[in-house]
Amino acid sequence: MLSRKGLIPDDYLLTRLAEDVLQPKFETESRKARFVAKNGTCNVAHTNIREQGRFLQDVFTTLVDLKWLHTLVIFTMSFLCSWLLFGMVWWLIAFAHGDLDQKGDDFVPCVTDIHSFSSAFLFSIEVQVTIGFGGRMVTEECVSAIVILIIQNIVGLLINAIMLGCIFMKTAQANRRAETLIFSKHAVITVRNNKLCFMFRLGDLRKSMIISAAIHMQVVRKTVTNEGEMVPLDQIDIQMDNPVGTNSIFLVSPLIISHVIDKNSPLYDLSADGLLHEDMEVIVVLEGVVETTGITTQARTSYLSDEILWGQRFVPTVSQEDGMYAVDYSKFGNTIKVATPSCSARALDEAGGLERFKLQESTSAGASVRRRIKRQHTKDK
User: 344 — phi, psi (to 5°)?
Assistant: First the structure.
């Protein structure tokens, strides 16, 4: 069982999160191109690469990066081609020594029981995979046969090491572990501890943990420098507020990762109205070490401006039942509306903080109510 036993229903892994339930789809205007997709893939196409030979200088990494179909084809063809090549060599040795002709009992062949190319091909397979059925073997009659035997064994070991290593690395790739690291579909901006915060939820479905997990965030937007240079993908780091107070997070249950929007934040001037028209993307990267394999893994996602909910917060997912903590993943992406100022964090600071801002709002609201009452009394008269 992949998920934490007793905390997640058995049929959970066969379904999607509650927030991903299929809804009726309507045609809308085309959305901006994402830099990082929701599943973590980078939406970047590399074109006009002239030095293609650089990929061949690192053949092993190139093989690991190939699709599974291409890797399996190369895996099969590497063995078949080597067997056919050395089968031809063994047939030529037997042909040159005269082993293919019927001889007397005193004749000693280079390789016994080779009568055709088929038998030479079978002997090549026996040598390279060390099967040794016992019917064919190399004799001490020909030095060339002994040399070819040594060369084929060395070549076979090299092919085994490269191809089996490639298959192992593909099956143990770190991005496979990232499939069970989930992010909330939406991020939220709301008030936490009297400060405006950007928040999203992160969870791990597996029982095995991610060691030394750390979160990195960036805002990607189009900017223009003071000199007039246009930077289409300007990546600005976002400082994180760790929920456990250390450099790494303890991802046993879903965590709400928050970023305090202060004067050092790239979201400092963002307001509720400005969010609707803002062309930006918030990229979230989780890095850590897989407990079972010791391999570093990375999970990524991103949030566009229309995927950031202003004035909402996540509902709790952890409850205590029968002496243990239970996580309800059906509420993983659920949010509720809360009272949140619609102005930017800069406007809040200029107003003297959240408390003074609330006081000003209540004063203005009371004044507007009194004006309406006064106008109503005037009309009645």
Answer: -80, 170
**CB–CB of 307/206 below 8 Å?**
no
Complete DSSP assignment for 128-190? HTT---SS--B-TT-HHHHHHHHHHHHHHHHHHHHHHHHHHHHHT-HHHHGGGEEE-SSEEEE
- Give yes or no for residue 27 having a pLDDT over 70: no
Q: Give one word for 162, left, alpha or beta, with left for phi > 0 and alpha for psi -120 to 50.
A: alpha
- pLDDT beyond 80 at 303: yes
Which distant-in-sequence residues (6+ apart) come within 8 Å of 16 by Cβ?
none
Q: What is the pLDDT of residues 247-287, one digit of tens each?
A: 578 888 889 988 999 888 889 888 888 888 888 899 999 88
Matching residue, tokens 């690991």 = 64
Are the C-beta atoms of 261 and 181 separated by less than 8 Å? Answer: no
* Residue 206 bridge partners (DSSP): 3
Give the model confidence (pLDDT) of 105-163 as tens digits. 778 888 888 888 998 999 999 998 887 777 788 888 889 999 999 999 999 999 999 88
Q: pLDDT tier at 18 (50, 70, 90 boundaries)?
A: very low
d(CA 251, CA 245): 13
Which pLDDT score is estimated for 23? Answer: 46
Any residues with CB less than 8 A from the CB of 314 and at least 6 apart, and which? Answer: 184, 188, 199, 201, 256, 333, 334, 335
Vertex 278 angle, CA 38 and 304, to 5°: 5
Question: What is the β-pairing status of strands 195-204 and 312-314?
Answer: unpaired
CB 178 within 8 A of CB 290: no
- 60 contacts 166 by C-beta, under 8 angstroms: yes
For residues 311-320, one letter each, b for 16 or more C-beta atoms within 10 angstroms of the residue's C-beta and e for the rest, the string is bbbbeebeee
